[in-house]
Each structure stands twice: as structure tokens, then as C-alpha cells.
């Protein structure tokens, strides 16, 4: 049982609020809210997957949107070929993004630091251009999906409330997975590599393999989020894997806080709600968001989760000698 | 044959243009250890300034010079207001902070110049072709770009390797505190270097402006190419940037024009025409992957840390 600090109460409240949201949306007749939050859940899942390598592995991937695109296009392309079964579409989405992550990771992880940032970015752009060039699947214009992935009888993704809960379950499952991973021996080793790779190698850990495994797990999870997003928008286009989307994911992770598996979800909620609010105030909302990001980077490194934790520590009654 | 020569010249021109961008990027990284994603924004701003000033003054050259100065000033202002606070921090901070700057610049341009693109027309003396070989004509403007970029590359070399300022820049790159302790105003020096990088990006932007349309986001696609070049060349190495930029320029241009024909020989026409666009846009990334397999630090690793 986690301690009853301010941070834990807020996080718990958020997790419960997300479960209850469709109930509210149903009674308030607010369909837009349900759509918005489904989007938040899916991008939150992508951010959670990125955090595994960014926050805990110290690997700054700037190409995570590529997996969203690959997962999404796997669903879109199969639907275009009249294969609608989710039991085919989703495993293909997962497999394709895992394979892409394996190849890209094997090449990129040979490098360090800035090289790694730029290489992941460049490979993701490569995927973007390749997809834009395939005329059969819409090219630049994208591909409309006429039927959502089909599963066995009770599950119907066209039902918005059901789809919301599918996304929610998958999101919570991935948070749980990341949490289990980072507390396992594998996760400890990964965090050890982040802190001091040389030392980890010296005591006999095959650091490259550990990093690559984490990279592939992260890419795979993100690919699944891509399959979800294709079902959510009923449309896939190259723009969903444009590099600014990778930037958005990094912002979510940092804004929410890299220190915990839930942080990126907080970041996704905060960023997308902020976008909604700002864009309802002015058409030129990015002119406010941009400098805001800079300020967060300069003055609030721990993100929202870090801020909450700090506040909780301050509130805790001083016990001790 | 003439087509081949023309494509080679196009490749050279494109490569040199990319070099201007990559040089600024790699200079700022090599000296300040700063990853600047907003470099593409400066390229875009250079193009917008050029289009505006050329329309005001009625002269292409005067407009270009004014745009260059204006981009330099914008770059130095960005350094003083934002970048200065990012030195010595994590690269993640650089990426996020400068990503915020991109959002800001894109939206600021939309606010000032509107969402529609602009065009910059060439004066008659550049908008024609010249006969450079008997029976072979080439666009005068593209030729002018080649000449200007070569001159700038030479200027950069002299500036960094042969002048006192260049000596201080190199010294600042290897040990910032020491140079500061010797009484050099290192802060001003960094501002100047950042401004120089911005001006190079702006120059690339304004020279590209008459060939493409001036539009929001124009800097982002080419920025990725500049990244690929810095990675291939070795981050921080200007010489590497030049070699890699020429490589990328040639491969990209020749690939786009000849790959479809080559594929037609090997594959069925239908398969070739589907595959060609995708494959030719992949070429430079494959080049990057190959370079990385053999030299993870790039072709000319900068000799530091």
C-alpha cells in the first residue's frame, strides 16, 4: 500500500477519474470529451512506452512517432486489403513495429548522445518519406479506414465507450508492465546502464543487449498505440509519424516527469488539455506553448510529477532526531 | 550526357546549400555543445526576410543583404534571450527548449506573414541560362549559388583557422573556462558564433527561396537532411560537414533522377514506379546507416572528449 502523500493521492485520483470519465460524458452528453480523452489515453500510452527508454534507459529517442505510424499503417493497409480481423491486424502492427525497432535500435545503439538523437530522428523521417511515397496506400493524402478492427462478439470498437475502455485497459496494462519491468532485475540493470555504462560493462553486463531489448519493448508498445490511434481516427496519414509528433511525445514525458511510469500519462493529460484550452483562446496558440516549454525546461526539470513529489515532501511532518 | 552533367551540377549546388546549413549546426554544436533544432527556423526566417526586403527595396541583392543582416540579428537575440541559459545542460533540455522555439517561430511567421506562402522572383540577369560548355547551358542562378557557397566555405575556413577570432573560437571549444580566465569575453564570442550560424542558415534559406516557395515549415524537412549530414560527417567537424553535404547532395539528386530508370531495367514497370519514389528518398538514410556501421562517430570525428 503506497503512502498517503499528496502526490499519490493526486495520481490515484487521476487514474480513478479516467475510469469514471465515460460515465460523466454519458450523463453530460459530451461526446467531444470522450473523443478527446480517448486520444489522450492513446498518446499517453505512446509516451509511457517512450519513457521506458528515455526516463529509465537514458536513450533519447527522437523517432518514436515512427512506431505510431507503423502500427497505424499496419492496421490501415490490412483494412485496405479487406482484412479487418483485429486478431490479424494487431499482431501484425505489433510485429512490424518490433521488427522496425530491432533494426533501427541495432544500428542506432552503436552511437551515443547527440548522434543517437539525430539518428533516431533521421530513421523516423525515412519511414515518413517511404510511407508518403507509397501511392497504393494513399501516399501523402493518407488512407481512410472504413471498418475498425474486428474482434470476437462482445467487443465492438465502433462503440465509443467500449473503445475508450479498451484504450484505458491497454494504457494501464502498459503502465503496469513498465512498472514491473523497471523494478525487475532487467530494469535495475537498464537503470544501471543509464547511470554508468562503463561500470556495468565492467561487472559483466552485456549492456548493448539490455539497451536493445528495452528499445524493442518500447517500440512495440508504441506500435500498439499506433494501431489504437488508427482505429480512433479511422484514418492514417504520414503526418501521424512526422517528427514534430515525436517531439510532442518527448514533451509529454518531460512535462509529466521521467521519474515514474505514471509521469508520462500526467504529461499527456496536461499537454493535450493545455493545447485544447490555448487553442480555444487564440488561433495562434503555439506562440504561447513554445515559450512555455522553454520555461518548463529551464525552471521545472522534474515535471509535474516531480513538483508533486516535492510538495508532498514539504508537507510531510518532520520526524526524527 | 548533358543531362548527366546538369544533374551533377544540381547535386553540387544542393550539396553546397546543405553545407551552409550543416556548417552552422555543426559549428554551434562543436563549440557550444548545443543541439539546436531551431536551426531550420532561422533558415525559414532568412527566406521570409529576403522575400519581404526584396519586395520593399525592389532589388534582389539588396534584399538578400538586408535579410542576411536581419537573420544575424535575430540569431544573436535568440542566443541572448534563450540559448545562453541552455549551455552546459543536458541534451534533452536543448532538444525540448529549441523545439519550443520552433513552435514559437512557426506561429510568429504565421502571425506576421500569414499562412499563405510567399515567392521571391529573380532579377533578369540571374533568371536566364548561361553557356558554360559549348552547347551546354545551365541556370545562371544555380551557378551563382555554387559560387557564393564556395566563397562562404573559403571564408569560413579562413575565419576559423587563420584569424584571431577563429583562434579564440577554437580555444573556447576546447576549454571555455580557461579562455574566460584569460580575459576573453567568452559570452560575447558565443553570441557571435551563434549569430554566424544563424546567418549561414539564413543565407541558405534566402538562396533556396527563388527555387522553392517560401512557406512555414520549409526549414523542417531540410533540417533533417542537415542532421544526417552532421552525423555522417562527424558532429563538430566543418570539414566533415562539407564532404558529407556533397555526398548527400549528389546521391539524393542523382538517385532521384536515375533510380527510376535503373529500377525499370530490373523490375516490371508497375513495381518500379511504386518502389522508385520510396527507395530514392531512403537512399541517404541508407548511406547514413552504412557509415554508422563502419564509423559510429562519423567520417571525420572531431577530436574532442
Protein described:
The complex is a heterodimer of chains A (321) and B (305). Chain A is an all-alpha fold. Chain A has a single domain, classed as ABC transporter involved in vitamin B12 uptake, BtuC (Orthogonal Bundle), CATH 1.10.3470. Chain A is built from 13 helices and 2 strands, in the order H-H-H-H-H-E-H-H-H-H-E-H-H-H-H. In chain A, helix 2 packs antiparallel against helix 9. Chain A is globular. The mean pLDDT of chain A is 89. Chain B has 305 residues and is mainly α. Chain B has one domain. The longest helix of chain B is centred in the N-terminal third of the chain and has 31 residues. Chain B starts with a helix and ends in an 11-residue tail after the last helix. Classes of the chains: A mainly alpha (321), B mainly alpha (305).
Strand order of the largest sheet of chain B: 1-2
Briefly, what CATH class of chain A? Mainly Alpha
Query: Residue share in helices of chain A?
Result: over 70%
Main sheet specs of chain A: 2 strands, antiparallel
Largest interface: A-B, 45 and 43 residues
Amino acid at each position: 500500500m503506497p503512502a498517503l502523500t499528496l502526490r499519490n493521492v493526486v495520481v490515484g485520483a487521476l487514474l480513478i477519474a479516467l475510469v469514471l470519465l465515460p460515465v460523466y460524458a454519458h450523463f453530460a452528453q459530451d461526446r467531444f470529451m470522450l473523443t478527446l480523452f480517448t486520444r489522450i489515453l492513446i498518446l499517453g500510452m505512446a509516451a509511457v512506452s517512450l519513457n521506458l527508454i528515455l526516463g529509465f534507459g537514458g536513450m533519447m529517442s527522437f523517432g518514436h512517432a515512427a512506431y505510431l505510424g507503423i502500427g497505424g499503417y499496419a492496421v490501415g493497409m490490412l483494412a485496405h486489403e479487406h482484412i479487418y480481423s483485429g486478431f490479424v491486424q494487431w499482431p501484425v502492427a505489433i510485429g512490424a513495429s518490433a521488427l522496425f525497432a530491432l533494426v533501427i535500435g541495432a544500428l542506432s545503439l552503436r552511437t551515443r548522445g547527440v548522434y543517437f538523437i539525430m539518428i533516431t530522428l533521421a530513421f523516423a523521417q525515412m519511414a515518413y518519406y517511404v510511407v508518403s511515397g507509397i501511392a497504393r496506400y494513399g501516399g501523402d493524402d493518407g488512407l481512410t479506414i472504413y471498418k475498425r478492427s474486428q474482434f470476437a462478439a462482445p467487443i465492438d470498437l465502433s462503440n465509443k465507450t467500449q473503445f475508450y475502455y479498451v484504450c484505458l485497459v491497454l494504457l494501464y496494462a502498459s503502465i503496469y508492465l513498465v512498472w514491473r519491468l523497471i523494478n525487475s532485475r532487467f530494469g535495475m540493470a537498464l537503470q544501471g546502464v543509464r547511470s554508468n555504462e562503463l561500470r556495468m560493462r565492467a561487472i559483466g553486463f552485456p549492456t548493448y543487449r539490455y539497451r536493445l531489448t528495452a528499445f524493442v519493448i518500447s517500440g512495440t508498445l508504441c506500435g500498439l498505440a499506433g494501431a489504437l490511434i488508427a482505429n480512433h481516427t479511422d484514418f492514417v496519414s504520414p503526418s501521424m509519424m512526422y517528427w514534430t509528433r515525436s517531439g510532442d511525445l518527448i514533451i509529454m514525458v518531460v512535462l509529466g516527469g521521467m521519474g515514474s511510469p505514471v509521469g508520462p500519462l500526467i504529461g499527456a493529460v496536461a499537454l493535450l488539455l493545455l493545447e485544447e484550452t490555448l487553442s480555444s483562446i487564440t488561433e495562434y496558440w503555439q506562440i504561447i506553448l513554445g515559450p512555455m516549454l522553454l520555461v518548463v525546461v529551464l525552471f521545472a526539470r522534474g515535471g509535474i510529477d516531480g513538483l508533486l513529489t516535492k510538495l508532498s515532501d514539504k508537507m510531510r511532518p518532520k520526524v526524527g532526531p | 550526357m548533358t543531362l548527366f552533367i546538369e544533374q551533377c551540377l544540381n547535386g553540387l549546388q544542393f550539396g553546397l546549400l546543405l553545407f551552409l546549413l550543416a556548417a552552422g549546426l555543426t559549428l554551434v554544436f562543436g563549440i557550444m555543445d548545443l543541439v539546436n533544432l531551431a536551426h531550420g527556423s532561422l533558415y525559414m526566417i532568412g527566406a521570409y526576410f529576403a522575400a519581404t526586403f526584396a519586395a520593399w527595396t525592389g532589388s534582389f541583392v539588396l534584399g538578400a543583404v538586408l535579410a542576411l543582416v536581419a537573420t544575424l540579428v535575430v540569431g544573436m537575440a535568440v542566443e541572448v534571450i534563450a540559448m545562453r541559459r541552455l549551455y552546459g545542460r543536458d541534451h534533452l533540455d536543448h532538444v525540448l527548449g529549441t523545439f519550443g522555439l520552433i513552435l514559437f517561430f512557426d506561429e510568429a511567421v504565421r502571425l506576421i506573414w500569414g499562412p499563405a506562402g510567399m515567392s521571391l522572383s529573380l532579377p533578369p540577369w540571374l533568371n536566364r541560362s548561361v553557356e558554360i560548355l559549348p552547347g551546354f547551358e545551365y541556370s545562371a542562378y544555380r551557378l551563382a549559388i555554387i559560387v557564393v557557397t564556395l566563397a562562404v566555405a573559403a571564408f569560413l575556413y579562413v575565419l576559423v583557422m587563420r584569424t584571431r577570432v577563429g583562434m579564440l573560437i577554437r580555444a573556447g571549444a576546447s576549454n571555455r573556462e580557461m579562455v574566460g580566465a584569460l580575459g576573453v569575453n567568452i559570452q560575447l564570442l558565443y553570441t557571435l558564433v551563434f549569430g554566424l550560424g544563424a546567418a549561414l542558415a539564413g543565407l541558405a534559406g534566402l538562396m533556396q527561396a527563388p527555387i522553392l516557395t517560401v512557406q512555414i515549415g520549409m526549414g523542417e524537412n531540410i533540417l533533417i537532411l542537415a542532421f544526417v549530414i552532421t552525423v555522417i560527417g562527424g558532429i563538430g567537424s566543418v570539414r566533415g560537414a562539407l564532404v558529407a553535404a556533397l555526398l548527400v547532395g549528389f546521391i539524393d539528386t542523382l538517385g532521384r533522377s536515375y533510380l527510376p530508370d535503373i529500377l525499370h531495367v530490373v523490375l516490371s514497370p508497375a513495381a518500379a514506379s511504386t518502389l522508385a519514389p520510396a527507395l530514392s528518398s531512403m537512399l541517404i538514410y541508407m548511406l547514413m546507416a552504412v557509415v554508422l556501421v563502419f564509423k559510429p562517430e562519423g567520417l571525420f570525428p572531431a577530436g574532442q572528449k
